[in-house]
Amino acid sequence: MHFNINSPFWRFLTLCVRYFILNLLFLLTCIPIITIGSARTALYSTVFAYDDHEDINLGREYLHRFIREFLRSFAAFIVFAAIGAVIVFALSFWNSLNSNSSYIVLPILVIAGIILLMTFEFYCPLQARFENSFKATLLNALRIPWATFGKTLAIVAVDIAAIALFVFTKYVRIACLLLGFSWLAYAKSLIYLKIFNQINQMSQRQDDLPDTSGPISSKDNSIPTASLM
Q: Which of 40, 46, 43, 45 is nearest to 73 (CA)?
């Protein structure tokens, strides 16, 4: 039997192994909880780099980018976590009150929670892709989801589909555990890249949409060719 490592089957199997390693490293670096922001940023930074250079060493690049992005992402995650904790406490407090004012405050808090989640969803990919200050990245993460609402819905749809596959399809559940986060990030990265291109085009036509507090400049994602892993 002729063994061809360049056949579609072996190339796909090699890709699965590479993304399994990336997924495993992501899960391990998320264990301390407070490092979730750094892990998400490094994950998106790695898959963005894979979009540009498919032959990179995913595991090695992830660790390099996790260290590079750690401090800024860690500080940003603490800010998001603190705001989220305030919203959760407020929701619990107002929900426990039996008053008419609760029906006014609770919807406002729910909307605030959704905005916070969407802002955090976009913050890590933006930091992974562009060089900018915390304030500028935060403003972009706050505004871009609504400026590109159709593609934002596509990102949400990808998340919902992944959750549905994990919950309702037991045969896919193992694959989700082994590869889920890395493949999910890759699928969403394709949408994010389209969003970033759209925003850059919009920024060229309208200087005030979105306000970047300085130009959005891409990071240098060029990296040397590496072995497959």
A: 40
Helices (H), 132-169: 134-147, 149-168
Q: Which 3 state secondary structure label does DSSP give 221?
A: coil
- Output the six-digit token pair for 17: 């192994």
Report the alpha-carbon distance of residue 208 to residue 150 in Å, rounded: 20
pLDDT tens digit string along 130-165? 988 899 999 999 999 999 999 999 999 999 998 888
Confidence of residue 179 (pLDDT cuts 50, 70, 90): confident
The helix/strand/coil state of 218 is: strand
Residue 204 burial by Cβ neighbours in a 10 Å radius (0-12, 13-18, 19+): exposed
At position 78, the amino acid (one-letter code) is I
